[in-house]
Design brief:
This is DgyrCDS56. It comes from Dimorphilus gyrociliatus. Keywords: Leucine-rich repeat, Metal-binding, Repeat. One of its GO terms (cellular component) is cytoplasm. The chain is built from 23 helices and 58 strands. By secondary structure, it is α/β, with parallel strands linked by helices. The strands form 11 sheets. The chain has a 16-stranded parallel sheet, with no helix packed on it. A 7-stranded parallel sheet has the order 3-16-17-18-19-20-21, with no helix packed on it. β14 (about 265-275) and β15 (about 280-285) form a beta hairpin. The longest helix has 21 residues, at about 925-945. It starts with 20 loop residues before the first strand and ends in a 27-residue tail after the last strand. The relative contact order is 0.05.
């Protein structure tokens, strides 16, 4: 049996975060503070949980090396009492007929052993005795066990079918027929299990057992006989032969016994063992080996020389205690947590009349321990406070948490020596007033009960003249007001008040009375409903936690203030007066602040400053020079354009600076020269085009992590970066780099480098000499070869997809140490299948191929590494969806994410995609990867068109996880798309179910729409449900200290707090639904929904889009597992006006045809659509009016031009300046009027409602503008010489151009994929819409999609075009 960690003999206190903590002092004092009150030992004996709850504590009642009494033999003996081996009778009943005869009928499956079971027909009214009679067993021998946890005996008045049905309803089953049918399922045993015996005691107990074959003699005159003997704990067992036979064994209790070394004639190595329990008995043991003799001597002395003072019987399914425990009157610490103990009178009342109960072993008998100081009875299903405990006057700490106690008796005040009383997680509403007589009480924990106001007894106990209670721990109750002046006056001496997760509003009339709290230093009001907090009257306040409220205003007194945590509110301003000289931590992130007070930069002790995710345009002017001790500055996701100036020669001590997602154009000139302690700098997603000079002193450039993704940096910046010789992480993705300097060889400590999304044509050979390099990402460039990476012995991840790789020795790469190899989207790369034959079973690899040339290669399927993308359906051009993904283990060595990709699920009319995040374990994710598609297929066929098949898919998968799902779990999002028919029109329906923190976003008309639900306590509905199930939520928001998710597949031991019932969304897809993003918490924790949609909006390839989102999250600081899936939708095969991007246009002559089509569709669907579909008229696409070409030749007709609707999008506004009309000459000499939609300034939020439809607004403006001949004339005179030259389109002034083809329908011959990022001072750039088809594969036509990309600058910029492979065939360019 493992060392006891019962957690008794500890006490509460408050650390810097205001959390209650505990520790132990040798003389049972409770004045130190080391640990939060909900913490426990995760490796507790007898537990089958990853985290054991909140009821035990570490290092309690002694040091870890103190001896704990091993009672394993007694527990095994107790488990064997009443164990039945009778074969169960199988009732003869027809299942279908029984279920159909009555809706109250059902089945339960009863197990006699671990694998033998019978099905018993029951009705809701069937009682336990009737079920027992059907099975032919005793009425008291039926047990029930939930999720492999505590097994309890069923009472005679209980109904097993009611218990089972209630469980099924709680986890999500809602149909009566399904609940009836589930009773026969064998998978249900892992959730709820009925049996005729308790679980046999085997692997639950870890016992240090000693076994030997020795010569044994009983007494002095018996003969020597060779027998088998065992020693376990304080019990020695002697068998009558050399084989173990329980029926003929003699048990010797060594408690109060004696062991001696003796000499006998003719024998050596002899021990004399004496026992006084059960009569005086003496045994002589002779061993042939000296080593064996010494083991027994040491073990026997340990069992007899001193009685242990600690006993741990937690989680043992005990209804009574083993009688042997009462042999030790000196017991001081007793841990009985998580059992089923009760008082004898209650046990007699609940048991059958013919059942013989043990005479000892009840809670009443605990008074026999005259020296007991610490008792843990947490989680014993007690509905009352045992009065017999009031007789144990020696108790110093009593733990009755996690029971169902509704009332505390007045007799509790007899416990005069009690210092710590743990009553959290019960059903208490009141406390007796006489608790104030317990003047030695120091800790009183009342969190997570049902109090609706602060008990007067608690307030009175904080008076130093009555007791030593300094902390009021009342989190997780229903307290809404603190306006009672009498109670507040009694809190005068309280130092810590914890009121998390209550219903406080704290109006000004209440906080005005807080002036009486003269000694208050720590206040915690997280997760309440406070809107305006004014605590200026609390002069001694040092620490304040007020996160996740609704505050718009915060006012504090700064006399003693040391730390403020006010994130996730709606703060527009806050004030601290006077200036907080002692402030060392300030967190006002996730608010709506526009400015910060300047005095913050003068706080000398300020070390941590968090102002991220606000609306700040400036930081305090002297934040770098004034805050002398500032270590961490987090100001990301704001509107900063410049940083405060840094004075030359005045160094600052900041170690970590996070400024990503701002608009910073340049760093202060002396920033790096003065940042002598800087280790982490994140400037991703800004506008930097150069970096200032480094410090001339080599050793003062100490940056270790540098994130510069998404800027405008060129090659010159790389030379500056190479001066950080201690650099370990370097992110330079999506800049304007064309080459990496050879000086990068100086970065010998570099472990990770990301240079994706640039214009690199080669990688320097010196990269292969970086021996510590682990991750190299260089996808989305123009690489045609790779350097020799053999010397990079630690390289594990190599991502060079989406390049021009041609001459690459894949065999050498596969034979190297690389475990993740991504060479996707390299159109000219061909892989020989023979390269995989020799290494197929030696390592895990992932070679993702998306080009089609290497699809189906032998050896690429069946790999153990995550989901190779080698399904031909992924590239079927007839499918109306395209899927791309990107997964990364981050800084962890273990990838715990699995992806579901069934793009032709039961045919081409449906698809299933999903993401499974196992957190820190991959077992559940791997298991669900197989289970979910199989179960979904069964449920779809079974349910037909009913909408609950996804719901039941999740619940059934939860049960099929078996024993693995009892301990660990996973968050899942599963999307099912299928085609439906309405008249003559094809329609597609998207259904998505999710549990946990895997979320999905739908892009509709460019807007991000969340289509999943985040299951955590941040959701009010989930918080209320968790509260009703009596769960405990820690300060980190974790349920019972285990997971932040309130719904998951698996972790069934957390039932009923965490359930598998998913949130299901059903959406009828429309032509303006463009793509779906599915991501785990590694993505959404760092990237907002709107930002994710905006970043990949113009990226046609779903693979490239997924990669960019992964790069973005990692550049923002994500170090954990990341999983991203992008599903591009093309469910509308006809042209649609709803998809016109910026800068696209259509002919005016098409409007009448579009109107007729709209009316025809309205008649068919009997509804007014939000979009108009065009037929296939000759369409025109031109740049915006600022660059209309002078040579007015029409473009070839489009096969699928799509126009965005103004009634639902911000990109076609009511401002007349956004629409222009021009006239173009056609080949036959006729003229054609063209409407051009100008790009609008990029706005963070789009208008949702527009009064008029886009066609009405457009028609009115056309009628006015067409009359103006001056406008038409000016439009025809525009100069286009900068765009068209020598029959080709020039790209950024380079000689890459499109040439018309005459031999086939292919109209252009573009170069390989290029990317031209906008440079500073450039015009809005054109970019082509990237797709999945290979540009070099004839005869498929190449398509580009021209859109307007807005620069960060307002001044004029030259146009540029990015040409990629199209995902959707939009239109062909015939001539220019």
């Amino acid at each position: 049996m493992s060392t006891c960690s019962s957690g008794i003999l500890s006490h509460f206190s408050a650390d810097l975060n205001g959390a209650a903590t505990l520790t132990r002092e040798p003389k049972l004092s409770y004045r130190n503070k080391t640990q939060a009150w909900w913490l426990t030992n995760p490796s507790r004996k007898g537990s089958n949980r990853v985290f054991d709850g909140v009821d035990g504590y570490d290092n309690l009642g002694g040091n870890d090396d103190e001896e704990t009494w091993d009672l394993t033999p007694s527990l095994i003996e107790l488990a064997e009492v009443g164990r039945s081996n009778v074969a169960l009778r199988q009732p003869n009943v027809r299942i279908k007929e029984w279920l159909s005869s009555d809706s109250s009928h059902g089945f339960i499956r009863v197990y006699s052993t671990s694998s033998t079971s019978v099905i018993v027909p029951c009705a809701l009214s069937t009682s336990v005795p009737k079920v027992a009679a059907t099975l032919g067993v005793s009425p008291n021998s039926l047990f029930v066990q939930c999720h492999g946890d505590v097994t309890r005996r069923l009472l005679s008045d209980e109904n097993p079918l009611c218990i089972q049905n209630e469980y099924l309803m709680n986890i999500g089953y809602s149909d009566g027929e399904r609940i009836q049918e589930e009773g026969t399922s064998e998978d249900l045993q892992y959730l709820i299990r009925f049996s005729t015996n308790k679980p046999y005691v085997d692997g639950t107990y870890t016992s240090d057992k000693l076994k030997s074959l020795a010569e044994i003699r009983k007494g002095r005159f018996s003969s020597w006989q060779k027998r088998l003997c065992t020693l376990c704990g304080t019990r020695m067992t002697v068998y009558k032969s050399s084989s173990p036979n329980q029926e003929s064994a003699t048990v010797i209790e060594l408690v109060k016994g004696k062991v001696e070394e003796v000499n006998t004639k003719g024998r050596e190595n002899v021990l004399k063992v004496s026992s006084c329990i059960g009569g005086d008995r003496t045994y002589y043991l002779s061993f042939s080996l000296t080593s064996e003799y010494l083991k027994w001597l040491r073990k026997l002395k340990k069992a007899t020389i001193k009685l242990p003072t600690k006993a741990d019987l937690s989680n043992c399914n005990l209804e009574v205690l083993p009688h042997t425990i009462f042999n030790n009157e000196h017991l001081v610490i007793l841990n009985l947590r998580k059992n089923l103990l009760s008082e004898k009178a209650i046990a007699e009342m609940e048991s059958e009349t013919n059942l013989t109960l043990p005479q000892i072993g009840y809670i009443d008998d605990l008074a026999k321990f005259t020296r007991l100081r610490s008792l843990n009875l947490a989680d014993n299903r007690l509905t009352y406070f045992p009065l017999s405990l009031c007789e144990i006057i020696t108790l110093v700490e009593l733990n009755l948490s996690s029971n169902k106690i509704e009332k505390i008796p007045e007799e509790t005040n007899r416990l005069r020596n009690l210092q710590a009383l743990h009553l959290h997680n019960n059903l208490l509403r009141h406390l007796p007033d006489n608790l104030t007589t317990m003047n030695r009480l120091f800790i009183l924990v009342l969190a997570f009960n049902k109090f609706n106001q602060l008990p007067p007894a608690v307030a009175a106990l904080t008076d130093i003249r009555i007791s030593d209670v300094e902390k009021v721990i009342m989190s997780g109750n229903q307290i809404s007001k603190l306006s009672n002046e009498l109670i507040l006056s009694k809190l005068k001496f309280a130092k810590v008040i914890d009121l998390r997760l209550n219903r406080l509003q704290l109006h000004a009339s209440e906080t005005f009375k807080f002036h009486v709290l003269e000694q208050l230093t720590h206040l915690d009001i997280r997760d309440n409903y406070v809107t305006d907090l004014d605590l200026r009257c609390v002069k001694g306040l040092q620490s304040l936690h007020c996160e996740r409220n609704r505050m718009s205003n915060l006012q504090l007194c700064g006399n003693c203030l040391k730390e403020v945590f006010a994130s996730n509110n709606s703060l527009e301003q806050f004030a601290i007066s006077p200036k907080p000289e002692l402030l060392h931590t300030l967190d006002v992130s996730q608010n709506q602040l526009r400015a910060l007070p300047d005095y913050l930069s003068e706080c000398f002790f300020l070390e941590r400053f968090y102002v991220n995710n606000n609306n700040l345009s400036n930081l305090p002017l002297r934040i770098f020079s004034g805050a002398k001790k500032l270590r961490i500055l987090r100001a990301d996701h704001n509107r900063l354009t410049d940083l405060p100036e840094v004075e030359e020669g005045r160094s600052f001590l900041i170690e970590e600076v996070y400024l990503q997602a701002n608009g910073i154009k340049q760093l202060p000139c002396y920033f790096f020269q003065c940042a002598n302690k800087l280790k982490i700098l994140n400037l991703s997603s800004n506008r930097l085009n150069f970096l200032p000079n480094l410090n001339e002193t080599y050793d003062l450039n100490k940056v270790q992590e540098l994130y510069l993704t998404g800027n405008l940096l060129n090659d010159r910046a790389c030379s500056t970066i190479c001066g950080f010789h201690r650099l370990k992480v370097l992110h330079l993705a999506y800049n304007d780099l064309t080459k990496l300097p050879e000086e990068i060889a100086n970065l010998q400590f570099l472990q990770e480098i990301n240079v994706s999304g640039n214009q690199l044509r080669f990688l320097p050979s010196c990269l292969g000499n970086l021996q510590k390099l682990v991750v190299l990402r260089a996808h989305s460039n123009a690489l045609n070869s790779l350097p020799d990476l053999k010397k990079a012995s630690n390289l594990r991840v190599l991502d060079v997809g989406h390049n021009r790789l041609l001459n690459v020795n894949v065999t050498s790469l596969m034979a190297s140490q690389i475990s993740l190899l991504d060479m996707s989207l390299n159109a000219q790369l061909k892989v020989d299948p023979k390269a995989f034959k020799n290494i197929r079973h030696k390592k895990r690899v992932c070679l993702v191929d998306l080009t089609g040339q290497n699809r189906g290669l032998p050896g690429l399927t069946g790999r153990n590494f995550p989901d190779p993308l080698d399904d031909p359906a992924d590239h079927d051009p007839t499918l109306p969806w395209k899927v791309g993904f990107s997964i990364s283990p981050g800084w962890r060595n273990k990838l715990c994410i699995s992806l579901v990709r069934e793009l032709s699920f039961g045919g081409k009319d449906s698809a299933v995609v999903g993401l499974i995040d196992g957190g820190r374990n991959d077992q559940v994710a791997k298991r669900l990867l197989t289970l979910l598609p199989e179960i979904l297929d069964e449920e779809v066929k079974r349910s037909g068109n009913r909408s609950k098949f996804l719901k039941y898919t999740f619940i059934r998968a939860h049960a099929k996880l078996a024993s693995i799902g009892q301990k660990i779990g996973a968050s899942v999002a599963l999307m099912y798309i299928r085609r439906t028919y309405s008249g003559m029109i094809n329609q597609y329906t998207l259904q998505l179910a999710n549990v946990g923190d895997v979320e999905a976003v739908l892009c509709r008309r460019g807007d991000a729409q969340l289509i999943t639900k985040l299951h955590s306590i941040s959701d009010s509905e989930e918080r209320q449900r968790i509260y009703e199930t009596s769960a405990i939520v820690t300060e980190e928001g974790k349920i019972n200290g285990t997971t932040k998710c309130t719904r998951q597949l698996g972790v069934s031991y957390l039932y009923p707090h965490v359930i598998p019932d998913p949130h299901v969304t059903r959406i009828a897809l429309r032509p303006d639904d463009e793509f779906v993003i599915i991501g785990n918490k590694g993505l959404w924790r760092f990237v907002s929904y709107d930002e994710a949609v905006e970043k990949i909006y113009d990226i046609g390839s779903p693979v490239a889009a997924a990669k960019q989102l992964q790069d973005l999250a990692q550049s923002y600081g994500c170090r954990e597992n990341i999983g991203v899936m992008v599903i591009r939708l093309n469910t509308d095969r006809g042209p649609s006006l709803a998809r016109l991007k910026r800068n696209q246009s259509m002919s005016i002559d098409d409007l009448d045809a579009a109107k007729e089509l709209e009316e025809r569709k309205n008649k068919q669907t009997k509804s007014s659509p939000a979009y108009i579909e065009l037929p296939f008229p000759p369409a025109r696409i031109i740049p915006g009016p600022s660059s209309i070409p002078e040579q007015k030749k029409p473009l070839q007709s489009s096969k699928g031009l799509r126009v965005r609707s103004a009634s639902t999008s911000k990109e076609i506004d009511n401002d007349s300046s956004s629409i222009a009309i021009s006239e173009y000459s056609t080949d036959n000499g006729s003229s054609q009027k063209v409407v051009t939609l100008k790009p609008l300034p990029k706005q963070r939020f789009r208008k949702k409602n527009v009064a008029e439809g886009w066609e009405d607004v457009l028609r009115k403006r056309l009628q006015n503008d067409v009359k103006s001949k001056e406008l038409e004339h000016s439009a025809m005179q525009l100069n286009t010489s900068s765009l068209v030259s020598s029959g080709g389109v020039w790209l950024n002034g380079e000689s890459n151009w499109f040439k018309q083809s005459t031999s086939s329908s292919r109209t252009i011959t573009p170069p390989a994929w290029t990317s031209a990022a906008p440079s500073q001072g450039a015009n809005p750039a054109y970019s082509a819409f990237e797709g999945d088809e290979d540009l070099n594969d004839d005869p498929k036509p190449v398509s580009i999609r021209v859109s307007r990309q807005h620069s960060r600058e307002d001044d004029a910029q030259p146009a540029s075009v990015r040409v990629t492979r199209p995902a959707l065939q939009m239109f062909d360019i015939a001539q220019l």
